[in-house]
Amino acid sequence: MLSPMREPTSDAEEFTVDELASRANMTVRNVRAYASRGLIDPPRLEGRTGYYNLSHLQRLQLIRQLLDRGFTLAAVEDAIVKSPTTAPGHALELMTLLGHTGDDDPSVLMSPDDLAALANVQHADPLIDALAELGLVERVDETTLRILDPQVVRPGAAAVALGLAPETVINAVPILREHLRAIADHLVKQVSDEIVQPFVDQGLPEHDWPRVFGAVEELLPIASQVILALFRSELQESIEIEVGDKLQQMGESGPEGTASAS
Length: 262
Known about the structure:
Elements: H1 17-24, H2 28-36, E1 44-46, E2 49-51, H3 54-68, H4 73-81, H5 88-99, E3 108-110, H6 112-119, H7 125-133, E4 137-141, E5 144-147, H8 150-161, H9 166-201, H10 209-261
Antiparallel strand pairs: 1-2, 3-5, 4-5
Helix pairs in contact: 1-2, 1-3, 3-5, 4-5, 5-10, 6-8, 9-10
């Protein structure tokens, strides 16, 4: 679920604050700030020097990954500081599970010419600029693009190739995002309120973690399947209504309308 962590050669290995910051890929200032907020345990002191171990490193790496996923520092702090002392690791894992979206890095590299071929357009630059503004594509160099979300970009390019205007496809993205975000927020809140919160209210009992993790992990994919099924149903109904309207227009126009149109 989380990306692999670079681990020390031994569980017993210890580091100074500078070494810990380097291994955690963050600044010494941030390490000290997290320590002052209680996000990591105090180091072992030897004289005036503090020594940190593998558990400190793993905690910092997990905090950094959660921040990278969009969690606020306040949310991470709540999970660690305000949870029972036996549960911080579990609380962070649950946050990661709720924020997990599949592959950590689904991006692929593609040339502008390949994207133009997918969309069946001669010049891909306007399309690339629009996709970049939506956060779906970024330019690596003049000959290489990084497609940040291939599952959106490839079908979108295919829709353009089938005849939709690039602007139509591009303009649909923020509309879809807005509605899907509202649905996602609602579903996650329901899972949180009805499954996670009662568990938190009970003091996060250790024996109940497998049940809660299992329920959350299974419910989120189920929700995705339901959304897809409902969308297909609504799409089919919308198509039938539109086709019916067109047939009615054709019937009302009659032979004279057909002749004049020709």
